[in-house]
Amino acid sequence: MTSATGIYSARMINQMHQDGAIISAQPFDADQVQPASLDLRLGTIAYRVRASFLPGPKTSVMKRIEDLKLHQINLGDGAVLERGCVYIVPLMEELALPEGVSATTNPKSSTGRLDIFTRVITDEGRAFDTVPAGYKGKLYLEISPRTFPALVRQGSRLSQIRFRSGDSRLSVAEHKELHAKETLVFDDDAIVEQGVSLSIDLLGSDRGGLIGYRSKRHTAVVDVDKKAALDILDFWEPLHDRGTGELILDPDEFYILVSREAVHVPPDYAAEMVPFDPLVGEFRVHYAGFFDPGFGHAGAAGAGSRAVLEVRSREVPFLVEHGQTIGRLVYERMAERPDNLYGADLGSNYQGQHLKLSKHFKQN
Ligand SMILES: Nc1ccn([C@H]2C[C@H](O)[C@@H](COP(=O)(O)OP(=O)(O)OP(=O)(O)O)O2)c(=O)n1
């Protein structure tokens, strides 16, 4: 195994699996290892709990589940997870990480686009979605569908994990340098600081004024494992610009919007979208997410790819305007260039996307 610092590539993830650092009773699914991440699979049982929690030092997740459990559900034949309820599911993958290798987890983009709130918890964990270096033990997924009831089963993949050694996030100067060389966002006025800023497109000029979607309430169930199965209009209300370039976010609603800028992740890098500024608390990109090496890369048929924004207002109705900054893409070095890039024959769902709902909907 190479000792290079940075995000682990698909090859290095497979190597960790062979070396016993990632343990799973069942072999990986064919497309489970992505260019710079591994999808995590649900195990056989979901525990419905009264409240979300972090175990903290000296406590295991199972111990907390025993205290907070309402009932348990077998996922073997599939089960519907209800809106607003909190479930904890032990995952099929376990870890025995070498010292110096840590990991972070994040909902898959498809999960975020369905407003299914998910976070990974570890034994003795003090933070969500954070796996400390050298962690040995099980992984658990907290799941809470916020908008649509979700049909899941053993093996469903709702979240993903990224491994890294050291910290290879780029500094301000390195972001500026990489942007000058590779163009990270296609915008003449790009703001490049600790990451590149992304703003909202509320004109939809290239889509006949379609600016996004607002979720409907009281819908049918979404089967998380079925692609292109659902009619958009049964679940979403399309939103059109009426010449103002503005939108009032209702705090009780969930929105899918799109970035104004096309984005680019060069092959030797991975990126993560984070809220623009935690102090701008009125609205946020809800789940943000991992961006793969090669996303938006012309050499992987990605030129022009936009970032999809899952947006919620916090407490009050909040007016957002075309071009308003909403998120930040922070770049990190890969430990090595992945053999395959996002979009290059990997069955990737979102390469080259503009405004795009999750893969579960029939796209017109
Ligand atoms: N808020 C976000 C998060 C991610 N992405 C893009 C960049 C990612 O490289 C791509 C795929 O992300 P995931 O791997 O998280 O998504 P899925 O696993 O659901 O899709 P795929 O099967 O295509 O990998 O989507 C996006 O446009 N907007």
Task: Summarize the structure in words.
It is built from 5 helices and 28 strands. The longest helix has 11 residues, at 172-182. Strands 1, 3, 4, 9, 11 and 14 form a 6-stranded antiparallel beta sheet that branches. Strands 2, 5, 6, 8, 10 and 12 form a 6-stranded antiparallel beta sheet that branches. The protein is mostly beta strands. Strand 3 and strand 4 (37-41) form a beta hairpin. The mean pLDDT is 93. It folds into 2 domains: 6-165, Deoxyuridine 5'-Triphosphate Nucleotidohydrolase, Chain A, CATH 2.70.40; 172-333, Distorted Sandwich (Deoxyuridine 5'-Triphosphate Nucleotidohydrolase, Chain A), CATH 2.70.40.10. Residues 34, 108-110, 112, 160, 273, 288-292, 295, 307-308, 342, 348-350 line the site of 2'-deoxycytidine-5'-triphosphate (DCP).
Report a brief summary of the structure.
With 364 residues, this protein is mostly beta strands.
